[in-house]
Amino acid sequence: MNADLRRLAVTVEIHEAKVWAACFEATAAIPGNPLDAIVDRSIKPPLALLGAIDSDQFNRVVCLGLSTPATEDMVSDVVGFYQSHGQSHFRIELSPAASPPELSHWLEMVGLRSDEETTTKMWRSTEQTPLPSTKVEVRRLGGEHRDAIGELSAIAWSAWASAAPLSLWFGATVGAQSFHHYGIFDGDRLVSVGALAVAGT
Fold first, then answer.
1. Which of 15, 41, 57, 44 is nearest to 169 (CA)?
2. In whole angstroms, what is the distance from residue 182 CA to residue 178 CA?
3. Helices (H), 49-94
4. 94-111 burial, b if ≥16 CB within 10 A, otherwise e?
5. Count H helices, E strands: the chain?
6. Quick check: pTM over 0.90?
7. Measured between alpha carbons, how far is 35 from 48 in angstroms, rounded to an integer?
8. What residue ranges of the chain have pLDDT lower than 70?
9. d(CA 80, CA 90)
């Protein structure tokens, strides 16, 4: 990986780690914290979980070994964080730019197994994005759309059994600082949602 590409990858990962933690903080701010959202910023990257949903879809570690090289103690801290909160399902999304080279071995040494390689982030020029063939109406969404965003997102993720908690999760960041939500409408019916998280410069 050349230096420019590595720098871009690290920037994207650090941003995602910040945004991911902010999603949990917004969820924790729901009165009563019904999903038992927890964020621990005592180590880098920040660690987060939903105590009410033991799932690696939420228990994700982003940016390990990027902002600073990882250590064996960091790996132990990550595993200990989830275990101490009774979470048995979590994953560490390891970037090809993570360091040191021994990190993947350390993860295996604490009992974690490597999964298939996947691409989780992509970037491309907007010039490569085709324009829609039909007219669509895109509107900025606010707090009054929170429930509709949550319900639509839960359906989109096929989360029928856990629709209620996921509705809370997807709606938590609506109106939160740095989050901008947009919706596509078919008449007055919200049919698609997208979110943009902007932080710093």
1. 57
2. 13
3. 72-84
4. bbebbeeeebeebbeeee
5. 5, 7
6. no
7. 12
8. 1, 117, 119-134, 158-163
9. 11
- Provide the pLDDT for residue 157: 77
Q: List the one residue out of 79, 77, 93, 90 whose CA is nearest residue 41.
A: 77
Reading the block at residue 156, the tokens are: 């989109």
Q: Is the dihedral of CA 148, 149, 155, 160 positive or negative?
A: negative
Pairing between β-strand 60-62 and β-strand 91-93 as defined by DSSP bridges: parallel
The answer for residues whose C-beta is within 8 angstroms of residue 52's C-beta and 6 or more apart is 34, 35, 36, 165
Residue 144, classified by CB atoms within 10 Å of its CB into exposed (0-12), middle (13-18) or buried (19+), is exposed
Burial of 180-199, coded b for 16+ CB within 10 Å and e otherwise, reads ebebeeeeeebeebebebee
Report d(CA 38, CA 178) in Å as an integer: 20
Which amino acid is it at 66? L
E strand or H helix at 62, and its extent?
Answer: strand 60-62
Q: Are 38 and 51 a contacting pair, CB within 8 Å?
A: yes
